[in-house]
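[Meeting: bench + compute handoff]

Bench side (C.D.) handed over the final construct sequence. Compute side (W.E.) agreed to return the predicted structure before the next meeting so the bench team could plan truncations. Sequence as handed over:
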Amino acid sequence: MFSLNAVVPVFVVVFLGWALKQKKIIGDAFVNSATTLVFKVALPVLLFKQVCGADLSNIVDPGFALFAAGAIVGNFLFWFLVIPLFVKDNRQRGAMIHTIYRSNFSILGLPLIFNMFGEENCGSIIIILPITVILFNILAVIVLSYFDKTGEGQRTSPLAVLKGIVTNPLIIACVLGVVYKLLALPMPTMVATSVNYLANLATPVALLSIGGQFDFRSALGNLRLSLSATFLKVVVTPVAIITIAALCGFRGVELGTLFILFASPTAVSSYIMAKNMNSDAELTGQITLLTTFFSAFSIFAIAAVLRALGLI
């Protein structure tokens, strides 16, 4: 029921966006403006808020944080090498890799973990939140820039990729969040309220945009790629990572956290970045919806197996 409660509202808002587009209440101009608003304002503010809110005082096992970071990078590199062997279009390559390695950990994952183990038992895992936010966004800029063709047989130069990372609003927001957190600066109530207002825009406006650009004919044409990416995202990746983690000795809350980190559906922000960085936004949105739907079942099934084996 917790998974369904998390999944159903996503589809309700996406369907609303699609219905509003069909009724011509919103149009392409709204979708383009909304994605720009989320990418440049709402989502950076949300990430800043999340990083600032992470509790850095509960570090129990630095090895756990290092393993999580290494798993994210290793998972990214694996699909970065494998996907181009089977997908020929560069924009689709970027979209596939982006949606497979990146998860909705901060918005959906953390509540799932709290529900599984109780918030009072999860202090040590909050430390990986800023790590995942920063890594997910840096790697996203790298993969989307790398597979952004500027011409036949050409890719963005390494210097352009570096520039894209340094100037990306999401990366800037994460860095500012870390600096603000380390300086332990107070946040006046009026500022905190304003931050909350802007941060709360990110997810619903992004979901409306996905619905507004959703095309059923295009979705059918991408069905092979979107279903393949979904299976790799919600089944293959989490099973592989938690198997390695279990062999390394992780158990209980830490293993459960790694499981949710990689089993959570693709982050809605992936669509926003794809839309703004010349990736295949339609395919990204379709994979986001499919992983959100199927993760409600895969998370339940894998968690049941882990509990039966006494691993969590």
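W.E. noted at the follow-up: DSSP finds 15 helices and no strands in the chain. C.D. will use this when planning the next construct.
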